[in-house]
Amino acid sequence: MTSLLRLLTILFTFARYRLDLLIAKGNLPWWLRLLLAPLALIPAGKRSRGERLRLAFEGLGPIFIKFGQLLSTRPDLMPPDIIAELSALQDRVPPFDKTKFCALVEHSLGDSVDNLFQQFDREPLASASVAQVHAAVLHDGREVVVKAIRPGIEKVIEQDTRLLHVIAQVVERYSADGKRLRPVEVVDDYRTTIFDELDLQREAANASQLRRNFLHSPLLYIPEVIWDYTRHKVLVLERISGIPVTNIEQLQAQNTDMKKLAERGVEIFFTQVFEHNFFHADMHPGNIFVSRAHPDQPQYIAVDMAIVGSLNRADQYYLARNMLAMFRRDYRQVAELHVQSGWVPEHTRIEELEAAVRTVCEPIFEKPLKEISFGHVLLSLFRTARRFNMEVQPQLVLLQKTLLNIEGLGRQLYPDLNLWATAHPFLERWLKNRFHPKTLWQDLKRYGPEWMEKFPEVPHLIFNGLQQVQHLDGLRDELQRSRELAQKRERRASVRRRLLLAATACIAGSVLLVWPELTHQVVKSGQHIPPAAWVLGGAGLLLLALRR
């Protein structure tokens, strides 16, 4: 009953904001068009399609708001006007009861909050759709924040994502862009992401890894995880004190070097992606602060590490070379790299892909470098490659979304930011170091023991491989013989079917020729049977005999 009421609420919201206009009616079956026809009586108003979709998500509550936020990070799938509207979604949720929060913390940690903490603030510090945060002080005097998952949220998420899945199936089947947008895949991705956010130990592990990567770094500070107080549904972190990165007035009031701050954001991104291969993938402004110390050498502070990303070594290499080739306007190499990386099928014609990339990129690079958006260049490149059957690479989409966030933030802080001036030397240095003897020696030390362990098995593996090749050759020959035999049988069956049709036609023709005589009962001893009937009947019987 609860699911039914929720479904009715979704349908009512769908009708209220005329979301049916987002679906091409021509692809719908007649009965569904008939059901949607009354919606034409509801005026759509002057709101854009993106605004109507945003308002619908806001009306349906936190889970749909977070889904809209996810869609706003998928410019590879959604049109720009909808992306712009969904980016404005804010996860504003009233806090849940403070006694329930305390009970949840106490149940997870096995003691009362008064015993666990020297001081515990029962009024929430922040509240979102999935979790709520309270301030506290440990017995050793350290200030911390306590984050706990909303009670009962798993049931709500399960119910709403199940309904979202049904809606996605309808959209994929009947929308003109259903196959390209892959809404079912997007919903499944969202379900995985939001359930991952419910595991606060996972977030704590991500935070711990990022903190270790940037330990003693002047670029980025990650709060310390208090592991003794962290469980599946409760996370306790060091409390940070910083200026929200969007508060330009406060940053300028303390004489922050805005140019260096913007450049360091870019450096942090490339360091995470290429050196650490572990990047914070949810770096929107709400999760970023700036330290109040050393404004002339500003340091970022990042929180909320629920979503992280990484690339394999091949993707790292091809991405770096793609970026360098693009900014050198070597479109031939960009096309070749797409094929070599496996991002597009190997049978893709290099000349056609090169021409398509040139058509997209050349107008962009006519602008001054400081006006070029790295993220949008990558987005344009991926959109172009999709015409050549490029599969969406989830890890690259996550990276591109993070790059767009960093770029937008950097230009907000310092409008004249030249992203390429910071990125170019970094990429050149990284590619050079990748093949440096010292790096190769490090790889040898890391993987050498494993190679030596497997080396004695190499002759045996080669022998087995040759046997498998011979076996495959035998299977191939057997398959070919089976295919030829099946073809012969099909040809014989085809001939028999044709003979049967011809025999049936001949016998039917002979019957038709003698039908008038049969109806007048004048046929006696075959005296009035036309010769043609004898010929056709005989031919039919002969064909039947041949068919056997």
UniProtKB/TrEMBL annotation:
Active site: 282 (proton acceptor)
Class of enzymatic activity (EC top level): transferase
Residues annotated for ATP binding in this entry: 125-133, 147
Keywords: ATP-binding, Cell inner membrane, Cell membrane, Kinase, Membrane, Nucleotide-binding, Transferase, Transmembrane, Transmembrane helix, Ubiquinone, Ubiquinone biosynthesis
Segments forming domain ABC1 atypical kinase-like: 89-338
EC number: 2.7.-.-
InterPro entries per record: ABC1_dom, Kinase-like_dom_sf, UbiB, UbiB_bact, UbiB_kinase
Coiled coil: none
Pathway stated in the Swiss-Prot or TrEMBL entry: Cofactor biosynthesis; ubiquinone biosynthesis [regulation]
Protein family per UniProt: Belongs to the ABC1 family. UbiB subfamily.
Function (record text): Is probably a protein kinase regulator of UbiI activity which is involved in aerobic coenzyme Q (ubiquinone) biosynthesis.
UniProt-recorded name of the protein: Probable protein kinase UbiB
Organism: Gilvimarinus algae
UniProt gene name: ubiB
